[in-house]
Amino acid sequence: MDDGDRQLETHIGEPSPFVDMVVGPGEADNSRFGGLLERLRWKAGLSRADAAAKLGFSSEYLRLIEVGKRTPALGQMRNLLSVYGAVGAVEEISPDGYRQDLIVFDPLDGDDGDPVVVEFTSRIREARRSALGGLPDDDEDSRQTAHERPTASRAAELGMVVSLLARADDATLRKVHKLLEERVD
């Protein structure tokens, strides 16, 4: 293994230090990101109503995204880039080994513009990042309080449970909810 391989392994799963915008609940860059998405929509020649219909959003939700009051989930970005015909990539590893949430080119910068690197934040993503980032693991899972940061193994497990719940039917969700209420109380 050469030094390049070692460097790549060192950074895999880490967010890039080269971030232009951080978006998510309560983030300051939400308005700038919304403006970027609006420019992508304009370049695609789509009205807000047409874009919303193709994305499966309401026009009002898309308006809220474009003014920075809401942010789409990272998982929606591939579809958004596709609908807008935008040049970009979702969750790619950069040449120096950092994980990039979203890389997109601003249509106002033309073909010569630099890509915009966007980092997404959310509780679920933070739990997954903690697991990937290799936080020290300990055996205090059972003593953890709601306000402490989860250990890497607990964060990974929580991420898996959330992803499974997202695909569960309503009856399963009700059963899990009841079970959790009985165990947590």
Automatic annotation (TrEMBL):
Q: Which domain of life is it from?
A: Bacteria
Region (Disordered) residue spans: 131-153
Q: Which Gene3D superfamilies match?
A: lambda repressor-like DNA-binding domains (1.10.260.40)
- What Pfam families does this protein's entry cite? HTH_31
Classification via SUPFAM superfamilies: lambda repressor-like DNA-binding domains (SSF47413)
Q: Where is the composition biased (Basic and acidic residues)?
A: 142-151
Q: Show where the HTH cro/C1-type domain sits.
A: 37-93
Q: Extract one GO molecular function annotation from the record.
A: DNA binding
Identification of the protein by name: HTH cro/C1-type domain-containing protein
